[in-house]
Structure formats: structure tokens, C-alpha cells
Amino acid sequence: MKTSEVVTTTTIYTSDVVPAIHGDHVRDGQLITWADANPIVWKIVMGTRSKAWGKGSSHYLGSDRSDAPSAVLHRVAVFKQYFTMGRASEQHGVFVDKPFNENIFQFSARFTLEHYNDKGFKGGFFQQFDGTYDRGCMTLDYTPGTLDGVVERFRAWCDAGLCRYETTAIKLDKRVIRTIKITVNKIKEG
Known about the structure:
Layout: E1 13-14, E2 22-23, H1 26-37, H2 40-46, H3 69-84, H4 104-115, E3 122-129, E4 134-142, H5 147-160, E5 169-172, E6 175-179
Antiparallel strand pairs: 1-2, 3-4, 3-5, 5-6
Helix pairs in contact: 1-3, 2-3, 3-4
């Protein structure tokens, strides 16, 4: 029998901002570089202040919500994917808000990064109500001063999908925050 000794070298990529976060894959290094260049990303994905993108977000599954470096890097990867994604198409199942240039998920990620340190920043569960049932829903972050704009983006997203319903109200955390009057145009015969 012959025995051989093989020496391998592993490159470890470590964050300058959060030294506890490290990985050994080239992709880990790219994610760490991006998050270190945008240090607020670490606060977003490691904290719970952002309901849309924090560690308890519905974007991440069970083990991805832990504090393990691999889980944190996965959350950075998901956040970066949505933050940087270009204009998505309807054929891929991600609908672009018709009056806007970016889809709601890209808007949400960019909004969170831009407003995370703003006074009153928080997240909530938005629901479209059609008069009988709750329909479209998602968790979005907002501030008191940006709530109206976030509601408009949410409503545009509800109106852009394949399954469209009349919106009679918008709810935030199960409480109606806006009612919408539906007008029916009558056609005159004559």
C-alpha cells in the first residue's frame, strides 16, 4: 500500500465590518465585499427591525434565520438578489408594477436600505381587501412619512398581477388604513 499526503489551502473570506461572518467560497467573498461596502446591509439582515428583510422575514426559511455565518450570508445573498435584480418580466412570475420601473420586491429591498436609519422606520403586513376577502398581501417596511407612497406601490402591485380584484381597502397589520371608493361608469344608451 502507498500513502500520500496532500496539503490543501483554503481561503477564508472575513467581513471587516462584522468579523464573526466568514466563508470559504468565492461567492461568500463577493457577498461579504458587497455588504461591507454597504454596512447597513449587515444591520438589516442580522436584526429584526426590518420586517421585510430582517432575520425573521418570510424571504428566509427556518435555518436561514439563525445567527450562523452561513445563514447570515444566505440572507445577504437573498437581499442582494432582490436589491440588484433588473426589471423582471411577467413570464418569470415576477410582475413589474405598471406605473413604476422596478418590481415590488426590488422596491422593497431598495426602500429598506435607503430608509433603515430613518426616524419611525418599521415594517408591517399589508393586505388588499376586496370587500369580502383579503387578497394580495406582503410584508413591507415604511416610515410615517413614506407610508402613503408604500401603500401606492403595494396597491399597484396588487393591480398588476394575473389575479386582479377590486380593492376596497388596504389593511396594515389587520387594521384598515385606507378605503377606496369604487365608482362604476354607467353607459348611456341612446
